[in-house]
């Protein structure tokens, strides 16, 4: 049982923390993942812990982009698995490939995460094999699966740590990032940078995917005219414009 009282004004945020801590205790989340989450919380606070207009547009553009891809793959790390396992499961059921790919890699943690995701409805989770290597990437994120990230045309990278986005783009892949920090190297280098909490992104993304599946022209103009530089500028302006008076 989670120990967060439901009437707490920051219930959702505390619930996420609780999931992270539990994920750490169960061997899903890396120690550094707890720190990364705290950093994300600070940025989310600046957004009022809600999805703002440009993040919503970016998520819609991402849904169109992934929907139109031949082999779209979601890269999952310890944090993502711990906070949104059910949504990862739902995405896998919609046809998005799911691959566990870790910065602090150990076979034990990869397998534990795969098992956890499967318990929450995910199908065909890749990453246990990781039989291919992304060249010139000097950490364990370089180990990828042949049918997954290695052959993907579009890769979604939530809570990423920087240099892999550039390498994936160098390989000709389209990269969609999810990172609450609009100034991170990942956000700055992705094709579509969603600056929002991964929990809200996945919920929105799934909703948009289903609408696009019913009508592939659904708000297609947003995707066609999407400008990532403008997106990042607007997100940064939004955060810089926060007033701390009375906060
Ligand atoms: O499980 P592993 O071994 O693959 O390790 C995963 C971590 C997260 C430890 C690793 O990727 C890492 O060190 O990431 P960074 O460099 O700390 O970057 C994480 C980024 O995600 C930061 O810019 C945070 O602001 C952002 N972030 C944290 N929580 C969320 C988030 N973005 C969206 N939603 C969140 N819930």
From TrEMBL:
Pathway(s) of this molecule: Cofactor biosynthesis; coenzyme A biosynthesis
GO MF entries: acid-amino acid ligase activity; ATP binding
Record bears the keyword Cell inner membrane: no
Keywords, in A-Z order: ATP-binding, Coenzyme A biosynthesis, Ligase, Nucleotide-binding
One example of a Gene Ontology biological process annotation: coenzyme A biosynthetic process
InterPro entries (UniProt xref): PPS/PS, PPS/PS_sf
Annotated catalysed reactions: (R)-4-phosphopantoate + beta-alanine + ATP = (R)-4'-phosphopantothenate + AMP + diphosphate + H(+)
Superkingdom of origin: Archaea
Binding of ATP, residues: 17, 39, 179-181, 185-186, 197-198
EC number from the UniProt entry: 6.3.2.36
Pfam families in alphabetical order: PPS_PS
This protein's record includes keyword ATP-binding: yes
Record note on quaternary structure: Homodimer.
UniProt cross-references to HAMAP family, sorted A to Z: PPS
Record-stated family: Belongs to the archaeal phosphopantothenate synthetase family.
Reported function: Catalyzes the condensation of (R)-4-phosphopantoate and beta-alanine to 4'-phosphopantothenate in the CoA biosynthesis pathway.
Protein name: 4-phosphopantoate--beta-alanine ligase
